[in-house]
Design brief:
Belongs to the sel-1 family. InterPro entries: Sel1-like (IPR006597), Sel1_AlgK (IPR050767), TPR-like_helical_dom_sf (IPR011990). This is HCP-like protein. The termini are far apart. The protein has a domain at about 1-95: Alpha Horseshoe (Serine Threonine Protein Phosphatase 5, Tetratricopeptide repeat), CATH 1.25.40.10. Helix 16 packs antiparallel against helix 17 (about 280-290) and helix 17 packs across helix 18 (about 295-310). The chain is mainly alpha-helical and about 375 residues long. It has helices spanning about 10-20, 25-35, 40-50, 60-70, 75-90, 95-110, 110-125, 130-145, 150-160, 170-180, 185-195, 195-205, 210-220, 225-235, 245-255, 260-270, 280-290, 295-310, 315-330, 330-345, 350-365, 370-380. It has 22 helices and no strands.
Length: about 375
């Protein structure tokens, strides 16, 4: 998942766009470079053209020789690309010690892409021992200096608590910093962290393709959030056919990994019998588990289970207590439910002032049923 610096496709496109925009002839440029290899930049560019087959045939070996020559003349980008070739065994035998040495040299010169890759070396033990603290420090330095790949890698460390205390606020902060610079990996990680309520606003605001997101989720279903989102896409038929059974399987897998929202959605599917056979006992058990974790929608649903006898005996007192706890913590559905109990004296003494109080609380957060209730009560009381 770590991004050691996937700038190649971007930089290649940048070079090609520049050449096309200025109506330059690729073969002429290549020919001129061949006749004028008199500094590190022209030697590097010859290597670049050979590596990508620009104005000539692709030759990784030629590229290697030219990168080595330019790198010997202290050309930063040549040293960086040479490190990548040694890292991947691309046109040369893999040599992790050389990767580390080149990246260390670049980091000392504060070449940000090299600094990010040195962090990657420390994080993954490439040419050196694993040292997540050093990796964190390098990513942090690169991130503070504006390198979008370092910002992404720093965010990953904060998200998963790798070598540093887990901090989702800082993870989102650095993903956003990176995404604002156009990094697609950060845009996709942000989607997993911002919460389902805001996902589609985020996707629309950043002009992301839903199909692209769905395909990315299929290839990166490696944590509870991404697995949950695959279930969500299948449940509602977003860039795929509606498939409640598949949604159930994804929700169940995500729920087993501890996702609160997946456990909540799973309990709803068991309650409604959508994509799975109805199972009131499981509704109750999942809701109880969520309530114990203080997850407010689950706490409200546990109240509903006690209120209606779903997977347990009817117990209005316990229903009231669950609704009240969730309502006081701001859950709008629980506020509506407790208002109903006060209005009709269900398991509690009838109290219209308390009913109106909680309907208002819920309505202020946008609950349409509470708004209707307030309107009808206003007509009756007046």
């Amino acid at each position: 998942m770590v991004n050691e610096g996937k700038e190649d496709s971007i930089s290649k496109q940048y070079v090609l766009d520049y050449i096309n925009n200025h109506k330059l002839n690729l073969r002429e440029i290549h020919h001129w470079l061949l006749n004028n290899p008199n500094d590190s930049n022209s030697i590097y560019l010859l290597g670049y053209f050979s590596y990508h087959g620009i104005g000539t045939d692709i030759s990784k070996h030629k590229a290697l020789v030219l990168y080595q020559k330019a790198a010997g003349l202290e050309n930063n980008v040549a040293q960086y690309n040479l490190a990548k070739m040694y890292l991947n065994g691309d046109g040369v035998e893999i040599n992790h010690v050389k990767v580390f040495d080149l990246c260390k040299k670049l980091a000392e010169k504060e070449y940000l892409a090299g600094m990010n890759r040195l962090g990657y070396c420390y994080e993954c033990g490439i040419g050196t021992d694993i040292d997540t603290q050093k990796a964190f420090e390098l990513y942090q330095k690169g991130a503070n200096l504006g390198n979008c790949k370092s910002q992404y890698n720093l965010a990953l460390m904060y998200e998963f608590g790798k070598g540093i205390g887990k901090d989702l606020y800082l993870a989102k902060y650095w993903y956003k910093k990176s995404a604002d610079q156009g990094d697609n990996y950060s845009k996709k990680r942000l989607i997993l962290l911002i919460g389902i309520k805001h996902i589609f606003d985020y996707i629309n605001n950043h002009k992301l393709s839903l199909q692209e997101i769905y395909n990315w989720l299929l290839e990166n279903s490696n944590d509870s959030n991404s697995i949950y989102l695959l279930g969500y896409f299948n449940y509602y038929g977003i860039e795929t056919n509606i498939n409640k059974r598949k949604a159930f399987i994804f929700y169940k897998k995500s729920a087993e990994l501890g996702s609160n929202i997946a456990q909540y959605k799973l309990s709803k599917m068991y309650m409604d019998g959508k994509g799975v056979e109805k199972n009131n006992k499981k509704v109750y058990e999942l809701s109880k588990k969520l309530a114990e974790k203080g997850y407010l929608p689950g706490l409200n649903r546990l109240g509903y289970c006690y209120d209606c006898g779903i997977g347990t005996n009817v117990n209005k007192k316990k229903a009231f207590e669950s609704y009240q706890k969730a309502a006081k913590s701001g859950n709008i559905v629980a506020q509506y439910n407790i208002a109903l109990m006060y209005e009709f004296g269900k398991g509690i003494e009838k109290d219209m002032s308390q009913a109106i109080y909680w309907y208002k609380k819920s309505a202020e957060q946008g609950d349409k049923y509470s708004k209707i209730k307030l309107k009808s009560l206003s007509n009756v009381l007046n």
